[in-house]
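Below is just one:
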Amino acid sequence: MHKITREQQINNLLELRKRKYTKLGQLRAIKQVIFLVQQQKVKELKDLQIIEEDIKNLSE
């Protein structure tokens, strides 16, 4: 398996956010990104803010 760069992770998440997913689909996508970020021990504030935004949007 090839490593995904932080930039690719962010771009993938931004792309997923543009699509019209069901709530469950969005949640799965967010969980996957969180997993990837944790795996690489990335503690970039921007990444976490994007994820938090998505979670907040889901709960509305």
